[in-house]
Fold:
Amino acid sequence: MSEPKAPTPTPAGDTYKGWVFKWTNYIKGYQRRWFVLSNGLLSYYRTQAEMGHTCRGTINLATATITVDDACNFMITNGGAQTYHLKASCEVERQKWITALELAKAKAARMQAESDDSGDDFSPSAAPGQGAGSQNAEFQSAMRMLGSKVEDLSTCNDLISKHGSALQRSLSELDNLTLTGEAGEKIRQVTERATLFRITSNAMINACRDFLSMAQTHSKRWQKALQAEREQRVRLEETLEQLAKQHNHLERAFRGAAQANASADSKSISGPGKGEVSDDDDNEFFDAMEEAPEFITVPADPQFHKRSSSNVSSFNSEICQDDQSLNEEPLAMNQESPSQELVPLKKRRTRIPDKPNYSLNLWSIMKNCIGKELSKIPMPVNFNEPISMLQRLSEDLEYHELLDKAAKSHNSLEQMCYVAAFCVSAYSTTVYRTGKPFNPLLGETYELDRQRESGYRSLCEQVSHHPPAAAHHAISDRGWTLRQEITVASKFRGKYLSIMPLGTIHAIFEKSNNHYTWKKVTTTVHNIIVGKLWIDQSGEIDVVNHTTGDRCHLKFAPYSYFSRDVARKVTGVVMDKTGKAHYVLSGTWDEKMEFSRVMQSSRGGENGTEGRQKTVYQTLKAKELWRRNPLPDGAETMYYFTALALTLNEPEEGVAPTDSRLRPDQRLMEDGRWDEANAEKQRLEEKQRTARREREREALNQRSSSTSEEGEEEFGEGGESDARYFFVGFISNLHG
Structure:
């Protein structure tokens, strides 16, 4: 093969070009092609002139496998999608390409691993300023380049050892060889291996030279940067020391003035007596949270309690009573009748089959769905989790004990805190759950009976198909009722998916007759096409007590790259009907919620986004309302289900024929038979569409064959027949 003189193989990252024979087909056999190796990609062209406009094929070496067949042939494949069978003119030329390809593959794999690590370790909350960020980026870039050169040296060293061993074996064979006809062949092999060793050694020498040159270039710059960092650290330490001295001085001055005012007030009112409250740890006040977008909380002034010691004493006794009632809560909740204690509880399952690892091209399915309603897009079960939307609604009762505590509360404002925490807790199960629940069929139901274990019973039903709507009703023996009607609107926008619940949730407590309502916030699924899926909750919730007029305003802060707050933050204020704040809530929707009693409120602090002053709340020390339960062991292989979610689809006897547990496609997916689940899911959806068209046709015939007055009566009867048709059609769909 006549070809231009190819450049000497250099460490991966530099361009390497040359002519190589490539297998095309059984008719034409091997054909000469121009190959170019650059930046971890191997591309080929028919001629050199095609490099500017037509590339015949490209393979990424980061995931490729390089195999040597014989003296001149070698093969490159990336797992089946692309395979190149190549042949060089001689063994020396083949080894040049093998050396260059191995170096390029090592560097490409290393760069890909560094990219993945940098994406996992990135923390938005720790983002520096632009100036420091540019310096840090430049430093990191230089360090990566130096590290790359070191890795190149290591790779070259391995190749030198490999070729050196082969050369040593050839020389040993030559020493033991007698003067026969094989002498010429052995001498030729020794010559070729010596040539290969020289080429690899030259590559290592060039890599060493580049490394030393780069180190010398950046050495002075690093010294200057290091000196600047040291000087800046010294200045910051001096500034911090001055600020600490000023803060200490102001604090002593403030305490002196406060003590003088307190003594003057006590003398003018009643003089010093036994009614004063001492400054001990029990009366110390703390921040409810450090920052809030709409208000600010600060420690309550201790002098405020000295001026109203009697009120403080009564308030402390009230707090102690509340704490005592909360501590006695589990005991009260466990006080069941003797007959119930003797009946053994059903043992629920704690595992489901592991999620199979099926690959799927997401973009091939989603590219035609942009702008469409999510419920109208035919989705394979690869995007689902093996529970239905009705079961997902029932999962809101994961932390039903919050409603149990609210039912026992004697204070409506404290009860509001528990209800608000229950609102937030419903989202804690979504932090890792990126799978889509199954869309329920029309007339599908789900019953969750936990009356013996937890005192409640729940029932859900799909009451509309387009638009999808579900009704949920739960009742508890511990004095509360929960109901909701949810209609979901969703839009796919290419990069993210927005899910907007439109229904209202009602909670009613029998003892106090308090009736609460609230709505749900928007759920957004990010990185639909590229990157790792993650879920965010954003929006505002107003929990309203229609009996007393109390209100709690909750704000779910959306994720922001520039925010200094913790991720998934939730803040709220509990107010009475006059608008006076009594409690401040803070926490995250995926971890915990806390509440603090408000002692005083005033206008002040920094101006808001609209120029108005924020409200400053003086609060007591925060107390924990709710904390998320840990996930079961191995949850990452079970769709990140919680302990309750693992039992939702557990087969049970005596359930309705329309229960979600009896859906065959959902059961097949849970068992890991996804291909069969996809076929069954498509069959059920098609039968549902056929049944819907049949109902519309019957309704149209009824309207056209009757008068307006008779038509109204017949339409009512037809509605009953439609209801029977829903039930019969649902059963026939399930069982084919």
User: Anything to note?
Assistant: Residues 183-269 form the longest helix (87 residues).
